[in-house]
Structure formats: C-alpha cells, structure tokens
Model the fold of this input.
Amino acid sequence: MASLKRMRPLLGTFVEIGCEQSDKSAEHAVAAAFGVVEKLHHLLSFHEQASDLSRLNQAEGKAVAVHQHTLRVMKLARAMTLASKGLFNCTLGGAMVENGVLPNHNSPNQDGAETKASGVANDIQINAHTITLSNSIKITLDGIAKGYAVDCAIAQLKRFGIKAAWVNAGGDLRVYGDLVLPVHRREINGEYVSLGGLQNAALATSTVTDVYDKTFPGKIVGSSTSPALGSWTVMAHYAWRADALTKVACLATAADRATMIERLGGRIVTVK
Amino acid sequence: MKNIHSLWLLPVAAIVSPVYAADYLTVEQAQKAIFADAQSFEARPAKLTSDQQDKIKSLSGLRQRWDTQQIWRAVKNGKTLGWFVVDEVIGKHEFITYGVGLSPDGHVLGVEIMTYRETYGGGVRNAIWRQHLVGKTLADPFKLDEDVPNISGGTLSSRNVMDGVKRVLAIQKVLNLVE
Done:
C-alpha cells in the first residue's frame, strides 16, 4: 500500500507525520494529528505570550487555570524533574531567558521578586484544573513538549483507526504498527549515521555543541553540571520520556549514564 | 511502565549520504491540501519591480531575493477563496520549497512543506538527491522506492520558513491582492 506523509512547520521546527495508507481516511487522520500538534504549539509555547505556559510564567505565584494537556505535560515534567534528581529540570526557564535562548515577556515582577534561574519540583503545585508556581521560577517545556506532542499525535492517528504510522517532530520520533522506520542521526559534523530500524517505540536526540548555530538553536542548561558535548539519543516507549531523558543523558556522569537512563525507563542508543 | 528490555533498534543496512531529502507534495497536491473546496486554480505569476521588492522588504523586514513569485488564485463558483503562493527557503543547511494559502483578507490559511532538503557543505548543496538510502529488514513492509529514513538530531529551527511566510504576506499586500 502506498504511504502518505506530510510536513508542516510547528513547535519551532518541522513536524512530519506519515502513515502506511494513502486514502481519504488517512488524509483526515493526518490532518487531525497535525491539529493536535498545532493545539499543543499554542498551549505550550514559551514564545507565544497568550499560551498556557506564558500565562503560568507571568502569574507571579497565583493559581492559573490551564488546559488538560498542559496539566498532563506539567505532571510528567514535574515527575521527571523529581525522579532524575534535577538532571531533567523543567524549572530552568529563568536560566534559559538569562542565556538569551528564550524571550523575556515579563516586565519586572510587581512584587519586586527576581526571577530565579532554576528551582525544584516542589515549586510546582498541580491541582485538578490549576497550576501554581512558587519561588519566582519560570517553567520551560523545551525538553519534553515536542515529545509529548508526538505522543498526542500518535494517539490521534490510532483513534482514527490508522494501523501503522510515525510522527517526527524535529528529531523526536515515534512509530507504531507493522512497520520499521529506518532512522539516521545527524551528527555534529553534519554526517548522517544509521541508528537502525525503529518499531513500536520512540526515540529522541539532543545535540550539545560548543558553537551556537541558529539553525539548530537547542541549548541545554544544567542547574549544576555542564552538558557533555556530543549527540545523545535515547529510546523509550513514549516520546515525551525519550525527549526528557536525552537531557539526563548529556548531564549525567559517564559512569551513571546508562543505569540512570534505564532506571528512568529508557535505553541509551550508541552508534557502533 | 512497559518493559524497557523490549526496546531495541532493528538492524538495517544503510548507505551513508551527505544529503537528506524528502518530497511531500506537488504544487497541485499542496493546492488541494490547503484549498480542498477550490474548483480551479488560476495561475497568476507575479513579476515584482524593484520598487515592489523594496516595499516587501520594508513591510516584512525581509529581503525579497527574486523578482518572480509563483501565485495562484483559488476559485470556487467564480469567487476567490484565497491565494496559493509557492516560496523557497535557502538556508545554511536547508533548501525548502513550501506552499502558503492566504485568505482574501490577508490571513494565513495553511503552510505545507512541499520538498525538504538538508545539506552540509557547499559541494553537496546542489546535488540532486533522488536515491533513497535505506536497507531492509525481513519483515519490512516498505516498498523500496518509498523508503526514506527519518532523521533524529539536534532540532532544526523552522524560523526561516516562518520568516518566509511573513514575506509572502507582504507580497500579497504589495500586489494589492488583499480585499
């Protein structure tokens, strides 16, 4: 059967959605999956001032009512921040702004409190419909939102009855069904190296370079350690987890890396 | 949590290539993807004067690098549904052709990537890349000519395309295609 694939600019990068069917129902399913990604783009963007994330970051300690998706991804981000002992840390928004990686929407806080570079999981309180941030922290979902969007797009494709499909959001990808997706990794020197075939799993890569390139603007900031140079690829069942664990991979010590990633539900992928 | 021991990449034969490319949509397919209701598309290619190019620059803040732009009017029952514009981005590492759908009152209706090429190094920038670079597993359901690998790696910014869309909106205005 012929396949169908589409690409749109979303989440600050390029999102490709493909499936092993090319009829009208496949087109509807792919369009609906893009619809979910677009929705998440508007909810979780640090760049858009009206997003749930920006409203939360500007709430100055007040409870903010947010969408169910935002609650869910914040729960995952908070849990991973805790479980990884801060190697993945969603409270690094302040540090990202300081580094000039993310825009600063805030006028100085009215209460005069300085935004903190980073915080801890307990600075985030999540209730049934609202989230409250304390200690003047800012949330960044850079390390998890793309992966989460991939998972939601996959769920949508399944809901539409698509038997086999894949979603790739700027290198965070997931595939399901009876198909093997050949995956190459773009190395720092621009070469493409084969990682193998991905089936019923997710995979994400973060690249740490010492030279800033605006074509690849990703930047990894640690709260205590510096990230290790190189490309870090992690496999997991869900893309949000693979995405988050690439940050753990580049910030963990060489001795702890593999076991730590396994304990957190992923597997580090090394190129032979 | 599902068992992580089921997480393995399957072996596939691979050819190393300096270029990654994928074709998504032809002009006709992209037109239909954005304007599903259109009955016809009238070609209205624009030749931009240097004065118009300057205006585009001052409206969008982005330089109009070429003087012709491929534009179509999407028509249904004689009425204008909107405009379909094909544009290109030539970045440091990427060469992207994409289609933009604009409403008659100047809003973006949709953006579809038509072809996407990532290249490194000047020598391969213009290489024509048609060869799909993938090996097989025994259980592989792909047809050979449809095999295109996926790329994982540092996230490529779509900023250049978003800037291009801004420029296309300025083109619509300069050509008086806004009602």
In short: The radius of gyration of chain A is 18 Å.
